[in-house]
Every structure is written in structure tokens, then in C-alpha cells.
Design goal:
alpha+beta, Alpha-Beta Plaits, five-stranded mixed sheet, GGDEF_dom, EC 2.7.7.65
């Protein structure tokens, strides 16, 4: 049984509690800029919101024309900018406990004085811990949405993107298509060559698919040997052409090591979002098209049935 030490009540505890209450009231109502800045930053983990707050508070003591922030977080570039800039700059690398949390730059048309530079450094000192926490939160969120094997977004990210895309499609009458791609007979690759070879083929497949797609397209690992691709502003026939290019890219992806030379083919199912259709219904239609492609011989593409049937 865990022993819980007895905490005695000191005679001056009421005074300490009263002092704590007074300090809290002063901190929450203080017009002091550092107290106000840290108070506002503590209310959010959104890095964009924090930088907006920092810009607002900094502008009250050091006028500037533009604030820019750049960082590379979890393999993605984060860029924030406000204002139009100027020829003079004050640039700071935000480092804390040996870790880098981006570069903050203030720009304006007039040179910054030494007193102003000192003031900016004080504000950064008050903000750096909150900015670190926001950066770490982004990294954790990105990790939770990323497939650890291939480095591409995972099913959680796909579910979120399908919900967002379905809403956009309904609201703006925009055309979005979904491709599900499954590697044919992949289980036999694992059985014959082992999971290490299978894992490498999955990595190579993800890389070749990314090279084949447009910048605006999104690729996800749906699970196992199955991938999903979201195509904005793309109708069914165009999506089928993309699916066929993806299948060709997969076929041309060969794993070689010593005497081992392994390649696979892929089957694809395509569905274009219908007005009022839920993300689950959209995904189900793509999955049904993929099932038909595999049932009818594999290494081919099938389009989901809509009005008039599938193909």
C-alpha cells in the first residue's frame, strides 16, 4: 500500500492563500505588457494565434511594418506573415534548451534602435515557452496523422480530409474524386520474401505514387497494402487516367537486393463525390469499385457505379 505523507497545516497558510489570491487577481488584470502577453499566449496552443497575439502586443511598444515567422515542423514548412515589410530587419532564431523553434523577423522602413532591439528580445523571452509548446503540439498532431512506415498521411488524416472535402464539394459544387489502390497478391510477397522486403516495397510504392501525383493531390496509407488518393477538381474519367498512371508507376517500382528482385501490380477503384453524399458513402463506393477490379482479374481500374452503372 502506498504511503501518503501527512501534510500539516501551517499557521500562516491563510495568509499565503490570501497572497496567492491577490497575486492571481493582479496577474489577470495587470496592464503590464509582459503579463498581458504571457496571459494571452497561455490561452491557446495554436501557433498562428500565438504569433498574431505576439504581433499585436509587440506593435504597442516597437512599431514595425511586417512580422514574419518560419519553421520546419514534422517535415512540413510553417510560414506566418503579417504586413508588407521594409528594408530594415530584426531577425531572431528562437532557441530554447538546445532546440530550435523557428525564426522570427520584424521588418520596417526605419532602422531599429538598440533600445527597441532590447525590447523585442524581452518580448521574445516572455513568449518563447508558449511558442515551443505550440510547435511541439503541431509535431505531435502531425505524428498522429502520419504513417510511421511510409511517412505519408494515415487513415486518421484521410478520414479528416474526406469530411472536409465532402463539405467543400457540397457547399461550392466542386468536383472531387477518390482513388483506392491495393497492391495485388501482396500477402505472397510477405510470405515468400519476408516482412522487411514487404515494408520496403510499401515505402517505394508510396514514393513512386507521390512522384506521379500533382502537388494539389493528396496521398494516404489507408491500411496494410492499400493506399488512398484524393484528387481536387477532377471528374471520374480524369481520375481513371490518374489511377492508371499510378498503377503503371507501381508496376515499374522494383525492389532489388542481391539476388532478390520483387515487383507488384495494383488494382484501383475510383469514385467521384456526389452531392449530399457522406464521407462513408463516398469511401464505400470507391471500395466497391476496387473490389470489382480485383474480382475481375486485378491490375486494372474500375469506376464506381453512379447513375447508369459503373465501368
Amino acid at each position: 500500500m502506498k504511503h501518503t505523507p501527512f501534510v500539516s497545516k501551517s499557521a500562516d497558510q491563510p495568509q499565503k492563500l490570501a497572497a496567492l489570491k491577490q497575486a492571481w487577481q493582479e496577474w489577470t488584470t495587470s496592464p503590464d505588457i509582459l503579463a498581458r502577453l504571457t496571459r494571452r499566449l497561455s490561452t491557446t496552443l495554436s501557433l498562428e494565434t500565438q504569433l498574431t497575439v505576439f504581433a499585436e502586443e509587440a506593435a504597442t511598444v516597437v512599431p514595425f511594418d511586417s512580422l514574419q515567422y518560419r519553421n520546419h515542423i514534422a517535415k512540413q514548412d510553417f510560414v506566418f506573415s503579417t504586413g508588407l515589410g521594409g528594408p530594415h530587419r530584426a531577425e531572431y532564431r528562437l532557441n530554447l534548451e538546445g532546440a530550435h523553434f523557428g525564426t522570427l523577423t520584424l521588418l520596417r522602413r526605419k532602422r531599429f534602435t538598440e533600445e527597441e532591439l532590447g525590447g523585442i528580445e524581452m518580448l521574445i523571452g516572455a513568449a518563447i515557452c508558449a511558442i515551443r509548446n505550440a510547435c511541439q503540439f503541431i509535431a505531435l498532431e502531425q505524428t498522429a496523422r502520419t504513417d510511421s512506415l511510409t511517412g505519408i498521411p494515415n487513415k486518421r488524416a484521410l478520414d479528416e480530409e474526406l469530411a472536409r472535402t465532402s463539405h467543400l464539394s457540397d457547399r461550392h459544387q466542386e468536383t472531387y474524386s477518390l482513388i483506392l489502390l491495393d497492391l495485388d497478391h501482396f500477402k505472397s510477397v510477405n510470405d515468400v520474401h519476408g516482412h522487411l522486403v514487404g515494408d520496403q516495397i510499401l515505402r517505394l510504392t508510396a514514393e513512386s505514387m507521390e512522384r506521379t501525383l500533382r502537388v494539389s493531390d493528396s496521398i494516404f496509407r489507408f491500411g496494410g497494402e492499400e493506399f488512398a488518393v484524393l484528387l481536387p477538381h477532377t471528374a471520374s474519367n480524369e481520375a481513371r487516367e490518374v489511377a492508371d498512371r499510378l498503377r503503371e508507376a507501381v508496376t515499374n517500382t522494383i525492389f532489388e537486393r542481391g539476388d532478390i528482385r520483387v515487383g507488384v501490380t495494383a488494382s484501383c477503384g475510383v469514385s467521384t463525390h456526389l452531392q449530399g453524399e457522406s464521407p462513408e458513402q463516398w469511401l464505400t463506393r470507391a471500395d466497391e469499385a476496387l473490389y470489382r477490379a480485383k474480382r475481375e482479374g486485378r491490375n486494372q481500374t474500375r469506376i464506381s457505379a453512379t447513375i447508369g452503372g459503373g465501368q
